[in-house]
Structures are given as C-alpha cells and as structure tokens.
Write a structure and sequence with these properties.
Elements lengths: L6 H13 L4 H21 L1 E5 L3 H10 L4 E6 L3 E3 L4 H4 L10 E3 L1 H4 L3 E3 L2 E5 L4 E4 L4 E3 L2 E4 L3 E2 L12 H17 L2 E5 L3 H13 L4 E6 L11 H14 L2 E4 L6 H4 L5 E4 L5 E4 L1 E4 L4 E2 L33 E3 L12 H19 L14 E4 L5 E4 L6 E2 L1 H9 L4 H7 L7
Parallel strand pairs: 1-2, 1-9, 2-5, 9-18, 11-12, 11-16, 12-13
Antiparallel strand pairs: 3-4, 6-7, 7-8, 10-17, 14-15, 19-20, 20-21
Helix pairs in contact: 3-10, 7-8
Length: 406
C-alpha cells in the first residue's frame, strides 16, 4: 500500500530540494510521479467482502475499477429475498429471484463459506481450505431464518427454486394454511396466499399484540391489520406457539398456543425470528466486538470497533436503524467510500442514517408503507406502486447490471 505524506512533509521535501538546487518544476514532476505510484498501489489494494447480499454487493459494485476486490458468498447466485412471499404462490417466479453474480462481478466473485478470519495476519479461510489475504475486509454476512423467508447458508439456487415450487404445490393442495410469525415476512406470506387463493383458510399467529414490530406507528399498524381483515386472513395475536418443534415435523399439524388454543392446518409455514450469520467471525478475535445478538459493534464510519481496516455493513452490524435492504445498500456504499478514502490517506465520511420507505406488501394489490419523511403512512395504491406489484424485481436486476427474465 502506498505511503502517504503529510502537508508538512511535502513542505520539508520542497525546502530540502531547494537547498540542494533542485528546481520547483522538478519537485512538482517528482510529486506527480509519486501520485501515479500511489494510484497504482490503490488499484492493487485487495478488499475481501464476506457476504454477497444487498450490502456486500453494494460494496463490490462501488469498488469496481477502483480497487482489487473479491466478493465471497456461500450461494451460487444472489437471492432477492424481498420477493420470497411471491415465490410461494406464483409458478416459475422463484427462478426470477436468483441473479447471477458473474455478469456483474466477473471473476471477482468466489463461491465459498468463510470459516475463519485472522485480523492480525489479514486473511480469511474458506471451507475448502483456501486462504485469501486482504488489505481491507468487509463483513456483510446478513441473517438467516426458516424457509421460505430465508435460505439455508450455502443453499444453491436450483435447490431453492425446487423447494419453492414444492411449497407452492403444497399451498395449492391445502385447504388451510397457518403462518407462524407476524413480522413483515409472515404478514407478506399470509397476504399473498390469501389474495391468490381466496378459498383457503389462512391463519396468522403472532406472540405480540402488534404486528411487524413495535417501531411502526399506530396508523401503519391499523392499515396492516385492516388489510389482513379485508383479505380474510384470520389473525391470532398475543399468543405463542408451544409445540413449534412438533408442528415443523409434518406438513399437516395441530398448532397449540400458550392460551390453550388449537388450530389444525393442512400446512404450517414458519416465519419466525431471524438470527445473524456469525459463523465467519464468532470464533475469531472479532467475537470480542460482538453484541449479545451477534451484531458487530461499528463506529460512525462502519469500521469494526478497534480495527481501521475491517468494516461491517448491513444486518450484521449494530447501527441503530431498521434493517432494510435499501439501507443496507447505503451502508455498503458508505463503506466503499471510506475504504477508498482510507487507502488514499483522506478523511473518512460519517454514515448518515438512511431514509428509505418501509413497505409491507400484503398481497399483490395492497399493503402499508411508512414514507421516509414526515412520518407519513400510505396504503394500498402507493404500496402497490413501490413494491407489491413486482416486489422490486426489475430494480434489483438493474442494480446487478442485468435484465430480469420474462
């Protein structure tokens, strides 16, 4: 990596040059040559990005043609999991949610699972035994959870597509479907099923009285509940499922709640809480920088606490903002800017917590959205325009430099 000189050092070099008869023109030429060397070294600086989701992909995209980088992900293709609910109900849709990495990142993409990180030696080790060294490291490992909202770590795209199609067929055949978990994904799955299959009994069970989370305003909470009621989704709130392990062993099951309620369903779909993917760093010195939930503590520049050359972006950091794909992209871009700045010896840019709409689409034709200004909440029409119509498929394919299949 290039050595950066301070203004005082350059002044000293200028004075010293004059003392031995070196002309100012010669000094300027020498300084220009030094800048060229620095630029070359910057291009040779290697950034390893662990995780190719929304945040990690943004880092890689913003570093293209500026630095050498390697984007590592355990999947063979990018998964646009905002669209998981649509993959459950529309035949052939799941295949559209997997976007190849190579057209966007060429041979800078490497498929593999990072099993260890050595901050001192500046390297990461993959599950196949390969070791990659880095000058800068970006951790963007994201979160995991139950299918269909999330995929198992390392699941290949064709297996996932097949699993979505199997689930879709089960939904078609079922007379009753129970969704466990009333966060955003659970609400969206229940909404898509009920709107596409109006004759089915769809039940949504959530352990809290408030759906989605406690952060959304009352006006949005009302819109969400009203939309579910309008579609005919049965909601059971404030009750926790007590036999989760048992019901997940079979498609058809009787769900028991802690308030002695029993719900028999032909199909049970889990949409319970997400967990941070920590396997890449939990058994390394970075585990000292972890919060209790697995998130890494970062400063205002996205740097992991105590490390100038290691950044964490997206779900796996502790930035106190809603974990949304759009905001993950913002964090990734901020990290890329700061890596370039740090390598050039320039001041870093503080991350300004992003502003993005929080959209919950409940079926294809409605839902609720909290806009990023004035706390304004809007309903079906705007939500359909923002997300519900195509679950942002075209936008995400375009961000990957590609066109979605018909």
């Amino acid at each position: 990596m290039a050595v950066m000189f301070s203004t005082k050092t350059y002044q000293y070099m200028r004075w010293a040059g004059c003392a031995v008869g070196v002309s100012m023109a010669t000094f300027v030429a020498a300084r220009a040559l030094a800048s060229q060397v620095i630029a070359k070294d910057i291009l040779d600086t290697h950034v390893v990005i662990v995780g190719g989701g929304y945040a990690g992909g943004a880092v890689a995209t913003d570093l293209k043609n500026k630095m050498k980088y390697t984007l590592i992900d355990a999947k063979d293709k990018f998964h646009h999991n905002w669209a998981a609910q649509r993959s459950c109900v529309e035949e052939g849709f799941a295949a559209k949610t997997f976007i190849p990495y190579e057209p966007q990142y060429d041979d800078n993409f490497k498929r593999g699972k990072v099993v260890s990180i050595d901050p001192e030696r500046k390297n990461v080790k993959l599950d196949n035994g390969e070791t990659l060294t880095f000058d800068y490291l970006v951790i963007s490992t994201g979160t995991g959870g139950p299918f269909p909202g999330k995929l198992a770590l390392g699941c290949d795209s064709q297996t996932a597509i097949d699993n979505y199609e199997k689930l879709r067929k089960k939904i078609v055949q079922a007379n009753s479907v129970t969704v466990i978990g009333g966060g955003a994904m659970g609400v969206e799955i229940a909404g898509d099923i009920k709107e596409d299959f109006k004759d089915k009994v769809v039940t949504l069970i959530h352990p809290h009285d408030q759906l989605i989370d406690k952060k959304i305003p009352d006006s949005m909470q009302k819109l969400v509940k009203d939309r579910l009621t309008k579609l005919g989704v049965v909601t059971i709130l404030g009750e926790r499922v007590t036999n989760m392990k048992e019901v997940m062993q079979n498609d058809k099951a009787t769900v028991q709640t802690d308030k002695q309620k029993s719900i028999t369903a032909d199909l049970v779909i889990p949409a319970t809480g997400l967990k941070i993917h920590t396997s890449a760093y939990s058994n390394t010195p970075l585990n000292e920088k972890m919060e209790g939930n697995g998130q890494l503590r970062v400063n205002e520049f996205m740097q992991v606490e105590g490390f100038e050359n290691i950044f964490a972006v997206g779900d796996c950091n502790n930035v106190p903002e809603r974990k949304l794909g759009m905001l993950a992209v913002n964090q990734g871009s901020n990290a890329a800017v700061n890596i370039l700045a740090h390598a050039n010896g320039k001041a870093l840019t503080k991350y300004s917590q992003g502003r993005a709409p929080f959209t919950v689409c409940i079926g294809r034709t409605g839902g609720a959205t909290q806009l990023p200004f004035w706390g304004l909440v809007v309903g079906d029409w705007m939500t359909t325009k923002i997300k519900a119509n195509d679950v942002c498929l075209g936008v995400v394919w375009k961000s990957m430099g590609q066109t979605p299949p018909k």
